[in-house]
Amino acid sequence: MSLVKEFNDYRSKMNDLILSKDNLVIKRLWNLDTNTYAEGALTTKTKELLGLVASMVLRCDDCIKYHLGKAHELNVTTAEVYEVFAVANIVVGTIVIPHTRRAAAYWEELVGKPA
Amino acid sequence: MSLVKEFNDYRSKMNDLILSKDNLVIKRLWNLDTNTYAEGALTTKTKELLGLVASMVLRCDDCIKYHLGKAHELNVTTAEVYEVFAVANIVVGTIVIPHTRRAAAYWEELVGKPA
Amino acid sequence: MSLVKEFNDYRSKMNDLILSKDNLVIKRLWNLDTNTYAEGALTTKTKELLGLVASMVLRCDDCIKYHLGKAHELNVTTAEVYEVFAVANIVVGTIVIPHTRRAAAYWEELVGKPA
Amino acid sequence: MSLVKEFNDYRSKMNDLILSKDNLVIKRLWNLDTNTYAEGALTTKTKELLGLVASMVLRCDDCIKYHLGKAHELNVTTAEVYEVFAVANIVVGTIVIPHTRRAAAYWEELVGKPA
Amino acid sequence: MSLVKEFNDYRSKMNDLILSKDNLVIKRLWNLDTNTYAEGALTTKTKELLGLVASMVLRCDDCIKYHLGKAHELNVTTAEVYEVFAVANIVVGTIVIPHTRRAAAYWEELVGKPA
Amino acid sequence: MSLVKEFNDYRSKMNDLILSKDNLVIKRLWNLDTNTYAEGALTTKTKELLGLVASMVLRCDDCIKYHLGKAHELNVTTAEVYEVFAVANIVVGTIVIPHTRRAAAYWEELVGKPA
Q: Which of A2, A48, C36, C46 is a plausible cystine mate for C42, CB 3.0–4.6 Å?
C-alpha cells in the first residue's frame, strides 16, 4: 500500500476509535488543534509550515506526514518544503536526518513520484 | 501475529540476549526498575499509571505497551486509561497523538477487542 | 524572596499578560488544562501525581513547582512525593537528578522547612 | 539590567570565547546557521518564525530570545508572535507554558513595554 | 532482508534523493557531519562512541545503527559497545531499554550472529 | 560566588537532603551512577566524555557542569573538550549553542581563566 494511503487509513480508523471513548479533554484538545491552523494574523500556509518544522524538530514521523499532506494541499513547492527541512536540520542537527529521509520519501509520493 | 504477542516475544528474546552479556550496570538498573513499581507509599496501580504517563509524554511506544500490559493485569479500566491518555495529551500536546493511536490499538487488543 | 512566592507571583503576572492578548487558542488550551485534573475515573490527587511525574521526566522545573504546589494542597505526603521522584529517576535516568534537587528544595519550603 | 541587553551581552562575549578556540566544526556550523535564514524560496521572515516555533517546542529559552529579537527587527507584529506561541502551545502542550511566560516578558521589552 | 542491508540500502537511496534537491544548507551540514568524526585531539574511535551514546540518549534508532556500523568497522569490541549502552541506560533511564534491544539485535548481526 | 563553587555547594547540600529521605530506589540508582564510570573495557576518561556529550545533547546544564568537573580532574585538555562540544553541536544542532556558551564559561573557570 502507498505510504500516504496507509497513513491516512490508520489515522482515520484510530482517531474514530479514540473519539468513540468520549473523553472530553481529548475531544476538545483535538478540536482546538484544527482551529490553530486557521487563517489569522499568519496565513494557514505559514502555520502549516510552522507545524511541519515543529514536527520535524520533535522527530515525530506521523506528525511530519500529516503536515506534509496539508502542505501539499496548499500548493507548497518542493523548494519550500526543503527549506523547512533545512531549518529543522540546522536547529536540531544530524539527529533529524533519518526523519528527513522518511519525510522526503513521503513528499515524493505526495507529488506523484514515489521513491 | 497479535501486537501483544509480538511485543512480548521480542522483548523477552532481546532482554535475554542483553542480560547474557553480563554488563553489571545494565543488570542492576533493570533489577531496580522492578523494585520501583512495588507497593509502597503509593500503590502499584498508581505507580504503573505514573509509568504509563511518563512513557507517553516521552513518546516511547514500547514503554507504553509495557505499562499498558501491566495496567491491564491490575484491572485498570478503559476510562482510567483514557484519563491517563488525556493528561499526556494536555501536558505534551498534539505531538503525542500518533502515540495515543498506537496505544489505543494495543489497549483494544489487551481487553479483547483488537482494532 | 521565597521560592514559592517568587514562582507564584511571576506565574500570575505573566499569565495575566498573555491572556490579555486574546489569543483564542491559548485561552482555550489553558482552560482545558484546568479541566484535565478534575475528579473523574481517576481522583484529582492521582492526576496531579501524573502531572508531576510528566513534568519531571520532561524536565520542566516550573511545571514541577506548579504540580508540587497542587500536591501539597491535596495533602500528598513527603513519602508519596519521593516515590514519584523515584519513578521519574528510573524512567528518565540521572539526567533528572538536577531537577530532583530543585524539586526537593521547593517541596521543603512548601512543607515549612526551607532548605 | 534589561533582559534584552543581558542576553545579547552574554551571547556576544561567550560566542567570541568559543570561536577563539578555533574548532573548525563549530565555526562552520555556526556560519551555516546564518545562511539558513537567508531569503530563498521562503522569506527570511517566515524562516525566522520557523526558527522561533522550533525553539519554543524544544523549550530553549535563549534560542527563543534570539529569534524574538530577529522577529522584532523584521517588524513581526505582536499578533503574529502570539500565533506562533499558539502553534507551539498546541503542538507541545502545557509543558511549554513556562517558556511562553518568559518569551512574553522578553517580547514586551523588545516592543518597549517591559513587563 | 538483513537489518544491516535494509538500513544501508534505504539510507543510500534516500540520501541520494535529498542531495539531488540541491539545498545548500543541508548539503553543507551533511558534509560537516563527516568532518566531525575525523581524527583530532580525540581519536575517531572515541568520537564514534560519542556519536553512539548521543544517538542512544536521544533515542534515534537509525542514528544508533549508523554509529554501530562505524564502531564495527573500527574494531570496537562487544564489551566496549555494552559499556556505551550502560552509560546511555544510566543517563537516560529505562526509557532507552527498547532502543537498547534494537541496538543489541543490530550489533549481533554486525558481528555475524544475527539474533 | 564562582560558578564552580556555587554548583558544588548546592549539589552537595541537596543530594544530602534527598538521600536523607531514605527512598531506596533513588539511593540505589545514584550508587549505580558512580559504578557506571569505573574503569572497564573503556577507560574512565572515555566514559566521562560519553557522560559529557550525553549531557550536552540532552541539554542539561548541571549535568554538563558535573562531567566538566570530572573531565578536568582527569586532565582532559581544552582541545579535547571542544571536540566533545563539536560532536554535540553537530548531532543536536544549534539548539545546543546556549548550553555550549554556559559550558565554555564553566570550563574557563575550571582551568583558571574565569570568563
A: C46
Region C75-103 average pLDDT: 98
Largest CA distance in chain B: 42
Of the candidates F25, B62, B45, B25, the one whose C-alpha atom is nearest the C-alpha of residue C90 is F25
The dihedral through the CA atoms of F38, F39, F44, F50 has a sign that is negative
Choose, out of F21, F22, F32, F33, the residue to mutate when testing the contact with B (most B CBs < 10 Å).
F32
Distance, in Å, from the CA atom of F70 to the CA atom of F53, rounded to the nearest integer, reads: 13
Beta carbons within 10 angstroms of residue A106's beta carbon: 21
pLDDT under 70: residue ranges of chain A: 1, 114-115
Question: Which residues in D lie closer than 8 A to residue F59 (C-beta atoms)?
Answer: 60
Instruction: State the alpha helices, DSSP H only, in chain B.
Output: 3-19, 24-36, 44-57, 61-73, 78-92, 97-110
How far apart (Å, rounded) are the C-alpha atoms in residues D88 and A99? 20
pTM for this predicted structure? 0.97
Closest CA to A14 of A73, A86, A62: A62
F58 touches chain B (CB under 8 A): no
Nearest chain B alpha carbon to F41: B23
Residue C80 in contact with residue B42, Cβ under 8 Å?
yes
Grid cell, residue F105, equals: 564559561
Write out chain A residues lying below 8 Å of F90, CB-based: 93-94
3-state secondary structure C4-24: HHHHHHHHHHHHHHHHCCCCH
Q: Tell me what ipTM this predicted complex has.
A: 0.95
pLDDT, position B113: 78
Query: Which H or E element spans position D71?
Result: helix D61-73
Could you give the CA distance from residue F58 to residue E93 in angstroms, rounded to a whole number? 13
